[in-house]
């Protein structure tokens, strides 16, 4: 008979095997001609579909980092979009400003990425060190204030650096040709997939590290952690900085994918969207943020097309008015998930197996018992 330890090892390997197969499947997707009417705008090898899927994966990566901060350390931030915008605008402005003529274009591109990363790290440490001096809703308000300041700065367009309300266009002169143009959308898709995998591995490493366990303990009872002689502030700052730097990385990939950036990505509304995505996917599950990010992005794109379709235009006013607003439909979906799926989309298999609605924390408590 198979021992209990062998069965546990085989069970633990299943998520790893499933994750590897999922990454391989996504990697070969641009080479296939899969058409999903009503979900994707065309076959999977077409540039429009690849750009939509790449954008969905970047949003999923951004939500995954936010979920680590919110779900692991219990830090409810309303300013996470600031670091996403710092990555996009930082790389765009650095490519334009930092371009010695004697340097080759590829070297300028690499140095610009490093400068943006260092700038994002300094920004994250500064904001985190100040915001983490308070807790709870006060912490959320401080992060919101920083995000609002960043949004105003972008719209003010100091020195013509950010482009103001018109946004910032990507300077393709110093970007590798393999990442420029519609014909290279496949490469940008693979870049987005690589970013998602890197973000997931970093989040997994942080959550399973000693600092991750201390952060989880701090979320539950910070006073007890202090009594044990540990430093909750340092651990929370570490989680905050890692999540913020990951957002900077995603922001740089977003700039390359979209060939520009708009002021919208720096607003508090964008951070609230991330919060909705995390709750929709399931706060208690790491891969829930990925599922939530992809589902939300696809719904947002397709519901916009559905709202302007002839089918909606021909409905009575009582149905046409709400159905013509994609945000109304997304909001309704979010309310239904919160009411009837408290564990999010990712928790649905667990509830089907258990035969009742169970929150992920209940499952953990039952396992510990």
Give the arrangement of secondary structure elements.
Elements: H1 4-28, H2 47-72, H3 81-97, H4 105-131, H5 136-156, E1 168-169, H6 185-208, H7 210-220, H8 222-227, H9 232-258, E2 260-261, H10 268-281, H11 288-307, H12 310-313, H13 317-323, H14 326-340, H15 348-354, H16 360-368
Antiparallel strand pairs: 1-2
Helix pairs in contact: 2-6, 2-9, 2-10, 2-11, 3-4, 3-9, 4-5, 4-9, 6-7, 6-9, 7-9, 10-11, 11-14
Strand content: under 5%
Shape: globular
> Count the strands?
2
Q: Whole-number radius of gyration? A: 22 Å
Cα separation of the termini? 26 Å
What is the residue-averaged pLDDT? 83
Helix-and-strand structural type? mainly alpha
Number of helices: 16
One letter per element, helices H and strands E, the order comes to: HHHHHEHHHHEHHHHHHH
Structure commentary:
It is a single chain. With 369 residues, this protein is mostly helical. 70% of the residues lie in helices and 1% in strands. Helix 2 packs across helix 11 and helix 6 crosses helix 7. It is globular. The C terminus is likely disordered.
């Amino acid at each position: 008979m198979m021992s209990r330890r062998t069965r546990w090892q085989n069970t633990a390997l299943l998520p790893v095997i499933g994750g590897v197969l999922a990454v391989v499947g996504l990697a070969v997707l641009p080479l296939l001609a899969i058409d999903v009417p009503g979900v994707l705008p065309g076959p999977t090898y077409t540039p429009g579909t690849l750009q939509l899927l790449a954008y969905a994966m970047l949003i999923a990566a951004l939500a995954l980092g936010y979920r680590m901060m919110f779900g692991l350390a219990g830090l409810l931030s309303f300013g996470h979009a600031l670091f996403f915008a710092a990555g996009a605008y930082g790389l765009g402005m650095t490519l334009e400003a930092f371009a010695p003529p004697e340097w080759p274009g590829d070297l300028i591109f690499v140095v610009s990425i490093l400068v943006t990363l260092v700038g994002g790290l300094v920004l994250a440490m500064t904001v985190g060190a100040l915001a983490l001096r308070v807790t709870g809703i006060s912490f959320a308000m401080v992060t919101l204030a920083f995000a609002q300041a960043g949004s105003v700065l972008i719209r003010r367009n100091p020195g013509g650096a950010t482009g103001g309300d018109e946004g910032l266009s990507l300077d393709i002169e110093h970007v590798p040709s393999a990442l420029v143009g519609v014909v290279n959308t496949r490469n940008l898709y693979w870049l987005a997939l690589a970013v998602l995998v890197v973000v997931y591995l970093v989040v997994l490493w942080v959550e399973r590290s000693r600092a991750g366990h201390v952060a989880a303990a701090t979320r539950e009872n910070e006073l007890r952690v202090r009594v044990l002689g540990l430093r909750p502030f340092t651990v929370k700052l570490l989680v905050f900085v890692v999540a913020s730097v990951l957002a900077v990385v995603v922001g740089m990939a977003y700039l390359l994918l979209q060939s520009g950036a708009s002021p919208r990505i720096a607003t508090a509304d964008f951070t609230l969207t991330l919060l909705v995505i995390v709750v929709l996917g399931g706060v208690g599950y790491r891969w829930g943020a990925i599922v939530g990010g992809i589902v939300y992005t696809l719904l947002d794109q397709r519901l916009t097309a559905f709202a302007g379709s002839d089918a909606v235009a021909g409905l009575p006013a009582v149905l046409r008015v709400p159905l013509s607003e994609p945000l109304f439909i997304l909001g309704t979906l979010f309310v239904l998930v919160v009411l009837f799926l408290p564990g999010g989309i990712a928790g649905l298999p667990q509830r089907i197996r258990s035969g009742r609605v169970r929150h992920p924390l209940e499952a953990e408590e039952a396992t510990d018992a």
